[in-house]
Amino acid sequence: MSRVQYNMALSGQPPQELTVGQKVFVFVGMLGLLVLLLATLNFQLPNKTLWLSLSLGAISVGTIGFSWSLYANKSSGIKNDGVWFKSLTSRRLWAWVFGILITLFYVVLYFFPQYLGLNANAENTGLIALFDPLSKMLSGNPASQWFVYGTLYTLSILIFGIKFIWKYRHSRYEIIRTISVMFFQTAFAFIIPEFMARLNGESLQLPYYDLKNIWPLNYYNFEQYRIDGFLNSGTIGLALLIFGVISIFVITPILTYKYGKRWYCSWVCGCGGLAETAGDPFRHLSDKRQVAWKVERWVVHSVVVFVTLMTTAVIYSYLDYDAAKYWLNKDVFLGFVALLLTLVFGWAMLFRREELQKDAQYGAIGYFVIILGLIGIHFFFGNQLFLFQAETLRKTYAFLIGSVFSGVIGVGFYPIFGSRVWCRFGCPMAAILGFQQRLFSKFRISTNGGQCISCGNCSTYCEMGIDVRAYAQKGQNIVRSSCVGCGICAEVCPRGVLKLENDSPNGRINPKDVLLGNDVDLMNYVNQK
Description:
The longest helix has 29 residues, at about 290-320. The protein has 22 helices and two strands.
């Protein structure tokens, strides 16, 4: 019997019962998870290579097979059918159960890996031991909790990426974008660092380095042990260190100017990759209220200030401990930081003041005064930098932001807060790229207000909580710091109102102009292009 649906209702169809094939694929996937559970409970699995292959293979076959059976008989186009009818995707019982289980797993993995079988002074047991064969094959070392984390993380992006591609198979942009995040996560974040560790020997010691992680996302990159590792690795280590610095001051601004923050947040970043693939069923749960937007702006920019202070304090703390290694001294470094911040804030307030909301202006000035005030206190009174020990700042940031927020809450609460809660409220990289995107990027989402029928699909499925419909109804370009350029708003629009564009910053139509009626002479605007 054919299951092709011809109903053209915008709201889609309520969820149907699983077919026999879908139930089989669910069963296969659950068998794979059962193997991981048995290993966690320390059941003795004699051939770990075989059991790990069977487990990950069953999970992959079950997920991909279920996705194929779900979308194979549906016509191409966005299919978000019944998301508000399902318990898992509407914050009901199964959403809370799933969220709590994932959160508990992350808590144990991050903070209590010994309960998963990690042994620093002996052979691993339990779940960690199950991944030993794969870890030894790639790096030559036994598995750690971070290797287990990276393997499951990468596998999730790959298998749910295939599901995402099959679901959005009508969109060339979504297919290429998803393949990109799958590639960068698999190659740059997982395989290459493991191979670098395998190359280490008596004559070569390469630091573990995810090449796509850029400060401030990799807030630890300029800590003392990392700098020592780079310098002790010879030419290769020095090249990696220089690449890390160039990524901050050259590569990131240029790419953001040309393409917006989407080049990283939607094409490269592993956090964004997991949110787009495994988190796709939960994207509609993002909070669209204005109060959430205000909280987002204050919290995420506070995180940027925190990581800036922490990094400055950490670098400052070890600059003089070995003068033969570091040509910078503490005073020169602090002067450079103060000068750089002055230039950035001065440029923003002088030339881009109209682009910023009043609270953004007040916040920028307040943070600027605080940072320069703390540096000034050190220069004039000689007190301890930022009134705290550098290690205290580092540990605080690593625990609250690097672990609890990004890992535990950011992923475990997908079914409750949506898939991009970390990107919205906690990611310092997203905040810095958003600042650049808002003030000087060529990227924008153009709208055709005359075609908008106010269906609300765009706002519903915006994972960043942007009320896209409000812009579309007025024909305003969407130029928001939080927009990651995923393009789903354009894909779910039944009228083709939205379009992702890269144009001259001068081509951003004044948001005060309403493109309805004859308020704006579009022909004159086009002729000026």
